[in-house]
Structures are given as structure tokens and as C-alpha cells.
Amino acid sequence: MGIENTYRESIEILRASDIIKKYHISFKAVIITFQSKVLEGLLRENLIIEIEDRKIGSAHGKYPIYRLSKMPSVLFYLSPIGAPTVVGVLEEITYAFDVKNIIMYGSAGVLDKEITAGKIIVPSKAYRDEGTSYHYHPTSDFIDINNYGYISRILDKITIDHVIGFTWTTDAFYRETESIVNERKEQGCICVEMEISAVQAFANLRKLNLYTFVYSADNLDSTKWNKRILGNLSIDSRINYFLVASEIANNVLYTTLIEE
Predict the structure, then answer these.
(1) Residue 218: pLDDT above 80?
(2) What is the pTM of this model?
(3) If phi over 0 gives left and psi between -120 and 50 gives alpha, with beta otherwise, what is residue 53?
(4) Shortest CA distance to 49 belongs to which of 77, 69, 63, 64?
(5) How far apart are CA 193 and CA 205, in angstroms?
(6) E strands of the chain, at which residues?
(7) pLDDT per residue over 161-183, tens digit each?
(8) Signed CA dihedral, 112, 113, 119, 120: sign only
(9) Model confidence pLDDT, tens digit, residues 3-59
(10) Per 3-state DSSP, what percentage of the chain is helix, strand, and coil (rounded to 5)?
């Protein structure tokens, strides 16, 4: 049986509630990213405050979780990379803190440099080249990314240049071969990353809202891999992406308040 046949509507043996306790305060949203270098700047600028009595992680280690200084009902968490880990982390965060809205951002490899140069990328679909999503969502090549239109409207409002397109989520970055890259490009993918399809599948099953964007980093749209800005952004530049995520969170909170 292939992994594409893994999904079952069946009772789970292990749940987040079995291993983690509910926190005494609920939160409206969580901003999650994978860019460790931003943390120093966020703390220095007092943009986030550590929640001292709770950490989130795995056997690899427990790590702090923060709340936003100007939006106390919004959490911030710096996650390890990769679909299985981030989904496991989100299972625990969304359960423990009663979070219903996830704002996730990070870097992505470029597959079409002509349309992505200097722009934020808002994925509208993700190719499922990872294993985690097949445990959360019935089989399909692509999964629709919810709320991409909502994010695009926010970015238009704050005059942030961006492009909407398909992303390719893969577990095996050392196996991004020429033939597969060309195939994904023919399917319409303009970037590649490691988490989005899995997190959207998780959000669908748990009835949560995902708002996600990426920024272009390394370039695969050439005969030779080009590192470009990956790992070389200044802390201040990284903060700018956090501020974009914060603006999305602010709009989500405002919309939720109106609906309530």
C-alpha cells in the first residue's frame, strides 16, 4: 500500500491531549516561522514577550513560546523546519492554547525567477511531495491553500508587492532533481518549500484557519544552484516579514471580532 492510501477516518490512538495540558489562557492566533535569526531582533525591539511557564517542543528539546507585545492574544513560535515537526508542534500549540488561526511564513526556493524576483509569494495551491499530509487529507497531487485571496487583499492594502502561485512542498531537498524541478514548473509551481501542504492538510482536518506566505531565497531556476540571500538577510530585514505576518494577524483578529 502506497502512502497515498494512508488517510483514514478512524479514531486516533495518540492525541495532543494525552501528553500536553491546556494552558490557563486562550489565544486567538499563532505566528509561526522557521527563521532563527529573526528572534534576536524581535526580542531586542520588544516585539515579543516570552511566556515563562510553558515551552513547546519534542524529545530534541523544549523551546520558548512568546506572545506579541502589541497583540497579547497572538502567539509567536520559532519552529524547527520540516512537515512532520511543524505539524506535531501545531497539534500541541493549537490544543494547549485554543488557537484557531495560524499565520505561517518562511523562505522558499525560486522556480520562476521572472515573476518572483523581489516579491512575497502567496501560495494558492501546494504540490504534496511530503508524507505528513497524506495522514490528514485524502489523496491528491495538489491541495488548495485556503485564504490566499484574503492575504493578497491585505498585501494590496499595505502596498506590499507580491505574486500568487503554486508551491511545491517536499521532504527531500537534496533530491530536487532536474527532471522533477522541470515537472513541477510545468505543473505551475513557482517556488519550493518544506511545510505548506502538510500544514494546510492539518488545518483542514482540525478545522483551523491557515494564512501563509513565503519570500524568495535561493534560486533553482538556473543550471546551477544559487544561494542568493538565503542565510544572509540582516535581522532588520527579517523583522519586516514578521511585521507583514503581524499585519495579517491583526486583520484576522479584527475579522474575528466582527463575526463574534
Answers:
(1) no
(2) 0.91
(3) alpha
(4) 69
(5) 21
(6) 29-33, 48-58, 61-68, 74-78, 101-110, 120-129, 142-144, 162-170, 189-193, 209-219
(7) 899 999 999 999 999 999 999 99
(8) positive
(9) 877 888 889 999 999 999 999 999 999 999 998 889 999 999 999 999 999 999 877
(10) 35, 30, 35
Place of cell 540582516: 234
Distance (Å, rounded) from C-alpha 146 to C-alpha 187? Answer: 19
Q: Which three cell numbers stand for residue 159?
A: 502596498
User: How far apart, in Å, are the Cα atoms of 239 and each of 45, 86, 107, 118, 125?
Assistant: 10, 21, 13, 16, 26
β-pair partners for 110 = 191, 219
CATH of 16-259, one of 3.40.50.1580, 3.40.50.1820, 3.90.180.10, 3.40.50.150: 3.40.50.1580
* Residue owning grid cell 499563532: 30
Q: What's the half-sphere exposure (Cβ side, CA atoms, 13 Å) at 223?
A: 0
Distance CA 199, CA 28 (A): 18
